[in-house]
Amino acid sequence: MLRKRLRKSAAEAGEPGLDKTPVAGVPAPRRPRPPPERSIYFTGESRPARLGMDFFNQPGIALARALLGQVLVRRLPDGQELRGRVVETEAYLGPEDQAAHSRGGKQTPRNKGMFMCPGTLYVYLIYGMHFCFNISSQGAGACVLLRALEPLEGLAAMRDHRQLRRRRGKALRDRDLCNGPAKLCQALAIDRTFDRRQLADDAALWMEAGAEPPDPGAVVAAARIGVEAAGDWALKPLRFYVRGHACVSVLDREAERRLPGES
DNA sequence: TCGACGATGTTCT
DNA sequence: GAACATCGTCGAA
User: Fold this and answer.
1) A155-163 and A2-13 are packed helices; what angle lies between their axes, rounded to 10 degrees?
2) pTM to 2 decimal places
3) CB distance A233 to A97 below 8 Å
4) Which residues fall inside 7 Å of strand C, measured at CB?
5) Which of A182, A180, A177 lies closest to A154 in space, CA to CA?
6) I want to staple A84 with a disulfide (CB 3.0 to 4.6 A). Which of A52, A96, A149, A169 is the partner?
7) Quick one: what percent of chain A has pLDDT higher than 70?
């Protein structure tokens, strides 16, 4: 009962309009902004196009890289839109990948979304209390896990959502709102009801083209997180993140040193 | 800032 | 009954 009340109040707390609060330690977004006195909602300026099926229909590794810099949008029931730029992903390659839920071609009611068409969401509960958010890619049983976002818009609502589970009232830094797979789900109010929905045509959740992709030379390929039991597959560089970005969940200094141009 | 640890409940063997 | 693609808190440094 109390929990229900808390959820409701958080959903109602979001303020409409753009939240221009910059993220500490993050270069200012390069997305062109309208003059301050003119809201984009009243100028007729259109938002970037939603990414369609064609975008998601690429192999897991390619999609994991291509998602960096794109913008995830969550429209709340009250109409407010939350936006975050993707800064960290992990590719799961399907039956051969010993770290994937689809390893060995295993298909269960839970992981069905992994086997559905590219752009299908696979949202699952982990450790009994957290949700993780995946996007199906090309190839049966292959998908991409979103691990971290840079909050762009609707930070107040994100903070409210994130604060629900925390005992102490200490305010979260902007960079801590979405820097983990379960954190971003919590901040954007993404739960299991989104499982198996289509990112290409859903009314409450979609992906928009980012202003510009990260410099390919700034994308770190590192081992995935939390899959130590997967043997050799745990070591493969299938996690991708934007080097130097404050919102990345886990840094891999060794992998960063392997980047071209690094000594 | 980092490491240890407990919370929590679904899913699968 | 064990495993689990995590997170928040606390105490030590």
Assistant:
1) 170
2) 0.84
3) yes
4) A 90, 92, 99-102, 114, 122, 126-130, 132, 134, 143, 145, 162, 165-168, 170, 176, 180-183, 186, 224-227, 229, 249
5) A177
6) A149
7) 81
